[in-house]
Amino acid sequence: MRMYDIITKKRNGEELTKEEIRFFVEGYTKGEIPDYQVSAFMMAIYFQKMNMTETSELTMAMVDSGETIDLSKIKGIKVDKHSTGGVGDTTTLIVGPMVAAAGVPVAKMSGRGLGHTGGTIDKLESFPGFSVEMSIEEFMANVNDKKIAIAGQTANLAPADKKLYALRDVTGTVDNMSLIAGSIMSKKIASGADAIVLDIKTGSGAFMKDEDSAFELADEMVKIGTHVGRNTIGVITDMDQPLGFAVGNALEVMEAIETLKGHGPEDLTELCLTLGAHMLVLGEKATDYESARETLKEVIKSGKALQKLKELVESQGGDARFVDNPELFETPSIIKPVFAKEEGYIKAIKADDIGIAALVLGAGRETKESILDLSVGIMLHKKIGDFVKKGEAIATIYANDEGKKLQSEEKIIKAYTIVSESIEKKKLIKGIVTKDGITKF
Ligand code: URA
Ligand code: CA
């Protein structure tokens, strides 16, 4: 088999065989096929596309390119949740404990933040002592014992994807549905989930800016999951503004604690109930979506979900006293409001720019080596549809450096669009994709 023939076959719009896809993935992972051939091949896929059979094969070949995690020692159906990335997205810290409290084992591999999006591990490290370093055996023992553990991605999962993603990133071939879907699903499948709930974001802060592409991506991922025997559901949600009010590590942890107590922001609470309810159904701890939501409201009301967060923090070496006493979290030296320069209704809040406004304060990473300041960030006071008077606070900045505060302030003001006519609130949950089809709300 020759890579040259595989490239020209796809260039001419033909369907590739299983053997050809495997040959490419294995050869590229081993370094036997050069980047220039793979660049041409990715461009051929970009223009000619791949069908479902090819996409599933590519996904599974990428899974098989490295280690896979065997979670079979964990009792019950392991349901993973994956978000395509947002700003102020604290859902894992809330959904994880909620779902675990309702009896579904949560074995979560999480990442650190990069660029304008935050990472769950960074947020959890706001609890002094909290660590994600553990062996796979400890990880599984924790899940069996506490129903929840959150680990860093240590294993060499889907190395073919890692290499391919880096190449796509510099060759203009990232935004192809099959390639994105295969990339995300290969990592989820390799990390051992039995079932997967995907939160596909759409809007200014998301990867998929328009709704139709988000539905298309969800459909592709659900089909891959179904094809390889993992029950998968995709929920399409709004990322046209940050989620909740807090953006920043310790601030988001405090927001998660409030939400687990039942006093969280409306949008964040609704998203957590929606994603969590689907997880309960897939994990067979509820027979239907509505009763799953009731169960989740109950674990919040009874305090069991909050208790689960404490157990998680404690079992991974963190100081769980912070959960009941959020005033223990370090507060930065500068806490200053940002005032509206005009009166009107909030039409838009560019989520990616708010993410960057938090990043410049030190809440996010510019490079993998950046050291974070977990105490800094932004609290938004106004969201889309709200009315603001001139001189009223739209946000509060938490900073440790006056210069950075000024930079951040400028970005926040620019991120907001204020207009004179009234604006309707955004719909948060835009639809759902299951193996049975697409439902738009
Ligand atoms: N995220 C991924 O992990 N892969 C892609 O291809 C795009 C986004
Ligand atoms: Ca938030």
What does this structure look like?
This protein is of the alpha+beta class. It folds into three domains: 3-48, Transferase, Pyrimidine Nucleoside Phosphorylase, Chain A, domain 3, CATH 1.20.970; 79-324, Nucleoside phosphorylase/phosphoribosyltransferase catalytic domain (Pyrimidine Nucleoside Phosphorylase, Chain A, domain 2), CATH 3.40.1030.10; 331-419, Pyrimidine nucleoside phosphorylase-like, C-terminal domain (Aldehyde Oxidoreductase, domain 3, Alpha-Beta Complex), CATH 3.90.1170.30. 45% of the residues lie in helices and 16% in strands. The chain has helices at residues 3-11, 18-29, 35-48, 52-63, 91-101, 120-124, 136-146, 159-169, 177-190, 211-227, 249-260, 266-282, 289-301, 304-315, 321-324, 351-361, 402-415, and strands at residues 79-83, 106-110, 148-152, 195-202, 231-238, 246-247, 334-339, 344-349, 377-380, 387-388, 393-399, 416-419, 429-434, 437-440. It has a five-stranded mixed sheet with strand order 1-4-5-13-14, with helices on both faces. The chain has a four-stranded antiparallel sheet with strand order 6-9-11-7, with helices on both faces. A three-stranded antiparallel sheet has the order 10-8-12. Calcium ion is lined by residues 88, 90, 243-244, 246-247, 252, 255.
